[in-house]
Design a protein that fits this description.
about 725 residues, 5-stranded antiparallel beta sheet, about 45% helix, 19 helices, 22 strands, alpha+beta
Length: about 725
C-alpha cells in the first residue's frame, strides 16, 4: 500500500525456479523500503497538481472561466471523459449546468448533448442528496437499468460514460457539485472523490474572491450606467468637514462637470452656492449627525458656474461592527422637472386669465352657459343666459319647465323631446329655437348641449351654451335677399341680351322695308309704328342691360384639356385634403371657342356643388370628351344643332338626387341646401351660359349613385 492506493509487484522468469519464495520475500522487502519514497512522490505530485489548479484559477478573469480551468486540468490528471459542475436554480426544482469540460475521448458536441437534456428536475437527479448537504457519490459501474431512473446516466452512457464520481462543496452562499465521468469502470473512485474534495477545499477561497469580484464589477457597472449621480463619502473622519468623497460615478461628471480627480477627498459643499437654501443644508447635516437617511431638493452649481436643481438622497452604510463607515448619496437632476412645473404653473395662471377673458367675451357676445343635472328639474344658468332668454335673475327661477315656458309654443315640444332624448341616449343636443316675443319682436336663439356620462354609461348631466342669434339671422336673410336680387339682375341681363338680338333682326327688316321703293304707301305708317316700337324695345333692353351690368361673351379658342389642369390644382388647394379631384381628358378634343371666364365660373360652380354633396369628403372627377349630336336628336339634346360638341363633366359620389328634385335642379332660386347655404341660381346660371354659348347643360343622378353634370359646348 502506498498512500490510499494498493499496488502489486511481479517478476517473471524464463525457466522453472525453486526459490520463488525468496524472490517474494525480496519483493516485500523492496516494497517496504521504497514505500516512503513513493508516498513522498505521491504527495509531491498532488501538491504540484493543486498548485497548477490554483494558478489556473487565479489567472482566470472570472468565476466561470476559473471553473473551466480547474475542470480542464483535473480531467487531464484523472483521465476523465467529462468534468462537470452543477448547482440548483434558486426557487425551482431544476438543475443548472455551471460548466462542462471534456477530456480525451469526449465527443465534439459535448455541450449540445448536455444542453439537450434540459430541463432536469433536481429532486429526481442522482445529484439530489449532494445538492442538500456536503458529501460524495461513487458509481463505479453504470448499468443500462439505471438510465430509466436517472436521465443524466442515460445521456452519459450514450456518450461513452461507464462510471462517475461526484463531490459537493460550498463556495460563498451556494452549493456546487463536481462530477467526473470515465469511459471505463473504475474501482478507485474513492481516490478520485478524495482528490475532488481536496481540490474543492483548495480553490474555494479563490473562487469566493472571483464571485465577490464579479458581484462588485456588476454593481460597479450598474452604478456607472445609471443616469443618476452616485457619490460615496467617508463617514469616519471628525469633524464632519473632513468627510471627503471616496468615489463618484460617470453620471456625476456629466451632471456637474467635475472629474473624479477633482473631487476625491473633498467635502460635497463645493457644489453649494449663494442661492442654495441654508435650511435644506441644515436638515441634511442634522440627518448625517443622527445617522438617518434623508431626502432634500437643493440648488447646486456646476463647475462652469451654471446652477442646477438636484434631488439628493443620502443613506448611511455600516461596517461589520455596526458602525457607520460610509455615506452614499444619489443626486437626480430635477432642473427640467422644476422648469416643467414652473411652466405648468404659468400655463395655469394664463388659463385662469384666459378663462376670465372668455367669460368677459361671453358676456359681451351674450353667450350664456347652462347645466341640467339628470333627474332634477332645477337648472344652473350663467348671467348671460338670463339675458338671452329675456328674464331677470331676481324674479326667475331656472328650471326645465320654466325654460320651456319661455319658448314659442311651436318649439317647446321639440325642445323638450330633444333634451330628454339626449339624457337617455347620451348624444348631444343642437337646437335653434324661437323665444316668446319681447317688445313685439320674436327672437331666435341657439341652444346646444353635450351629455356627460358616468362610468356605467348613465348620463349625469347636460352642459351647454345658448346665444341670441336674432340679429345674425336677420342679417343673413338680408344677405340672401341681396344675393337673389343680384342673381335676378344677372338673369335679367341674359334675357335682355336675347331680347336685344331679336330686336336687332326686327329693326333691320323694318329698315329694309322702309327703304324699299316698292313698299306700298298705305303700309308705311304701320311700318313706321313698328320701327318706333322696335326702337323703344331696344331702349328698354339697354336699360335692362345697364341695370344688370351684363356684358357680351368674350369667346376665344380654348384648349379645354390644358386649361382644366391648373383649374383642378386650384380647386384641390381650395377644397383641402378631404376631397380628391381627378382629371381624365380626351386627348383628341380640339379647341373650343368659348368665354374662358364664364366657363371657369361654371366649372367651379359644379365643383362646389359636388363638394356640398359630399360633406365628409370624397372623389370629384372632371372629364372631357367629344360628343356627336345627330339630326333629329330628342330629349335634352333636342335644342342643339347637329354636329360635334365638347363635353366637360363634373362627377361626384355623393348621395344623389331623386327624380323629382333633379327635374327642378335648373329652376332659378330652387335649392336643396339648408337655408342660408345657397341661392338656387348656380345651375340656372350654368345653363344660361351654355345655352348662350350654343350648347346646353345635362344632369344625370339617382339616389345613392352620385351626380354628374355635363357642360355641352359646340365645336365650331
Amino acid at each position: 500500500g502506498v498512500g490510499g492506493a494498493r499496488f502489486g509487484l511481479a517478476l517473471t522468469f524464463g525457466t522453472p525456479r525453486e526459490d520463488l519464495q525468496d524472490v517474494a520475500d525480496l519483493l516485500a522487502d523492496v516494497g517496504q523500503a521504497i514505500r516512503p519514497a513513493l508516498q513522498r512522490k505521491q504527495a509531491e505530485d498532488r501538491l504540484a497538481l493543486l498548485h497548477e489548479v490554483l494558478a489556473s484559477v487565479a489567472e482566470a478573469p472570472g468565476f466561470r472561466q476559473a471553473i473551466d480551468a480547474a475542470l480542464r486540468r483535473l480531467c487531464e490528471h484523472a483521465g476523465a471523459l467529462w468534468g462537470l459542475m452543477w448547482d440548483k436554480v434558486d426557487g425551482a426544482d431544476q438543475l443548472r449546468l455551471v460548466a462542462v469540460q471534456g477530456g480525451a475521448g469526449a465527443p465534439d458536441d459535448l455541450y449540445e448533448r448536455v444542453a439537450a437534456a434540459f430541463p432536469l428536475a433536481a429532486s429526481k437527479s442522482i445529484l439530489a442528496p449532494l445538492l442538500e448537504a456536503e458529501g460524495q457519490r461513487l458509481m463505479p459501474r453504470l448499468t443500462q437499468e439505471m438510465t430509466a431512473r436517472f436521465p443524466l446516466i442515460g445521456l452519459g452512457r450514450a456518450a461513452g460514460m461507464r462510471s462517475l464520481a461526484a463531490r459537493s462543496f460550498v463556495v460563498g452562499p451556494r452549493r456546487y457539485v463536481l462530477v467526473f465521468t470515465f469511459a471505463t469502470e473504475r474501482s478507485d473512485l474513492d481516490q478520485v472523490a478524495d482528490l475532488l474534495a481536496e481540490v474543492g477545499r483548495a480553490i474555494r477561497p479563490a473562487l469566493q474572491r472571483k464571485q465577490v469580484e464579479e458581484r462588485l464589477a456588476l454593481l460597479q457597472a450598474a452604478v456607472d450606467a445609471t443616469a443618476d449621480a452616485v457619490v460615496i463619502t467617508d463617514a469616519r473622519p471628525t469633524p464632519p468637514a473632513d468627510r471627503g468623497v471616496l468615489h463618484v460615478n460617470p453620471a456625476f461628471t456629466r451632471m456637474t462637470g467635475y472629474r473624479p480627480e477633482d473631487v476625491l477627498g473633498r467635502n460635497l459643499r463645493f457644489l453649494q452656492g449663494r442661492d442654495t437654501d441654508p435650511a435644506a443644508v441644515a436638515r441634511l447635516r442634522a440627518a448625517v449627525d443622527g445617522h438617518r437617511a434623508a431626502r432634500e431638493e437643493l440648488l447646486n452649481y456646476r463647475r462652469d458656474g451654471t446652477p442646477f436643481w438636484v434631488e439628493l438622497d443620502i443613506a448611511p452604510f455600516a461596517d461589520e461592527r455596526g458602525e457607520v463607515a460610509n455615506w452614499v448619496g444619489v443626486l437626480r437632476d430635477t432642473t427640467e422637472r422644476r422648469a416643467t412645473q414652473e411652466a405648468l404653473q404659468r400655463v395655469a395662471g394664463e388659463l385662469r386669465e384666459r378663462t376670465a377673458q372668455l367669460t368677459e367675451v361671453a358676456r359681451l357676445a351674450r353667450i350664456g352657459s347652462w347645466i341640467w343635472r339628470a333627474g332634477h328639474n332645477a337648472m344652473e344658468w350663467s348671467e348671460e343666459t338670463y339675458e338671452v332668454l329675456g328674464v331677470a335673475r331676481e324674479t326667475f327661477t331656472p328650471t326645465v319647465e320654466a325654460f320651456l315656458s319661455q319658448l314659442d309654443p311651436r318649439d317647446a315640444p321639440r325642445a323638450r323631446a330633444a333634451c330628454w332624448q339626449a339624457v337617455q341616449s347620451g348624444h348631444s343636443v343642437h337646437l335653434e329655437l324661437r323665444v316668446k316675443p319681447s317688445a313685439g319682436r320674436v327672437r331666435e336663439i341657439i341652444w346646444n348641449g353635450t351629455a356627460r356620462q358616468a362610468a356605467d354609461g348613465r348620463t349625469v348631466e347636460l352642459r351647454g351654451y345658448c346665444q341670441d342669434v336674432t340679429e345674425r339671422r336677420e342679417a343673413e336673410a338680408a344677405l340672401r335677399h341681396g344675393e337673389k336680387l343680384r342673381a335676378l339682375g344677372k338673369l335679367t341681363g341674359g334675357i335682355a341680351h336675347e331680347f336685344n338680338n331679336l330686336l336687332t333682326v326686327v329693326q333691320a327688316n323694318l329698315e329694309m322695308a322702309l327703304d324699299d321703293s316698292e313698299t306700298l304707301a298705305e303700309a308705311r305708317p304701320e311700318l313706321e309704328a313698328a320701327r318706333r316700337a322696335a326702337l323703344a324695345g331696344t331702349e328698354l333692353t339697354g336699360r335692362l342691360l345697364s341695370f344688370a351690368r351684363s356684358e357680351p361673351l368674350r369667346s376665344e379658342p380654348t384648349d379645354v384639356n390644358a386649361w382644366l389642369g391648373p383649374l383642378r390644382d386650384m380647386a384641390t388647394r381650395t377644397l383641402g385634403q378631404r376631397y380628391r379631384i381627378t382629371l381624365r381628358d380626351d386627348p383628341g378634343l380640339p379647341p373650343v371657342t368659348v368665354d374662358r371666364s364664364q366657363l371657369e365660373g361654371a366649372v367651379l360652380n359644379l365643383i362646389l356643388n359636388a363638394r356640398d354633396a359630399m360633406p365628409t369628403g370624397g372623389t370629384i372627377a372632371i372629364e372631357t370628351e367629344r360628343m356627336e349630336v345627330p339630326p333629329g336628336a330628342r330629349g335634352a339634346l333636342a335644342d342643339l344643332l347637329p354636329g360635334s360638341y365638347a363635353v366637360v363633366a363634373v362627377r361626384d359620389n355623393g348621395a344623389g338626387m331623386p327624380a323629382e328634385v333633379a327635374e327642378r335642379a335648373f329652376e332659378p332660386f330652387f335649392t336643396t341646401k339648408p337655408v342660408g347655404s345657397g341661392t338656387g341660381l348656380g345651375l340656372s346660371m350654368v345653363l344660361s351660359f351654355t345655352r348662350q354659348s350654343g350648347g346646353t347643360t345635362l344632369i344625370e343622378t339617382a339616389p345613392g349613385s352620385g351626380t354628374v353634370v355635363r357642360i355641352v359646348l359646340p365645336l365650331r
